[in-house]
Design goal:
Layout lengths: L1 H34 L5 H22 L2 H5 L6 H32 L6 H29 L1 H29 L3 H6 L3 H29 L3
């Protein structure tokens, strides 16, 4: 499985460095010269890293990797599992490193505060994790090009749903903060972990199922 992860890292290495370097420069200029707020930099860089990971599917499709991989003594579970581990590792690793770097830079610049940087970075990381868990099975089922439209919908639908739900709750007079405030924090955390675990398991099993179908 380590070899499969390294394969993706090596294939993305040149493209990843160039694109991330360019995005970092653009976002840094925007943060320093335009909005004068370093908090914006961390979540945008995490988003860029995750978009690079999605590109690894395009590299595989261009190189006809799946045709070759199906001839190897590797089970679909290992091949798909390596991609999920890479996704989780890059998401967590990039979030921690970028948030730490931004926190240090913030201490010498705008002093927005570590909690604000950590919160914005964690929020974007959580959103991309959920989107990735949804779109990865689609990539295995439909291919990269056909799944791009579905990916855009997956990005837009949660935002539109949240906006609509917020407006609906506001009009109905429902106090979400008071409602969730009555639930103990450990219970909320446990519920979130269980929900995330269920989503990860479901997404992984679907991806394995779709990838296995390619063997037939």
């Amino acid at each position: 499985m380590t070899g499969l992860i390294l394969k993706d890292l090596y294939s993305m290495r040149s493209y990843f460095v160039k694109q991330i370097g360019l995005m970092a420069l653009i976002y840094l200029v925007i943060c320093v010269a335009v909005i004068r707020n370093i908090v914006f930099f961390a979540p945008m860089m995490v988003m860029s890293v995750m978009m690079m990971l999605i590109s690894s599917f395009s590299f595989d499709e261009t190189a006809k990797w799946d045709i070759y991989a199906l001839t190897l003594p590797l089970s679909p579970r290992r091949i798909v599992g390596a991609r999920y581990l890479l996704m989780a590792g890059m998401l967590i690793g990039s979030s921690v490193v970028i948030a730490a770097v931004c926190s240090v830079a913030d201490a010498f610049t705008f002093r927005d505060g570590v909690p604000e940087i950590a919160a914005s970075t964690a929020g974007v990381a959580a959103a991309y994790l959920l989107v990735s868990l949804i779109v990865m099975p689609l990539f295995y089922k439909m291919g990269v090009e056909k799944a791009r439209v579905a990916m855009v919908i997956c990005f837009m639908a949660p935002f539109m749903l949240i906006v609509w739900l917020a407006e609906y709750l506001k009009k109905s007079g429902f106090d979400a903060a008071a409602f969730f405030g009555k639930i103990p924090l450990p219970a909320l955390a446990a519920g979130g972990v269980l929900l995330l675990a269920a989503l990860c398991a479901g997404s992984y099993l679907l991806s394995v199922k779709f990838y296995t179908e390619k063997e037939r």
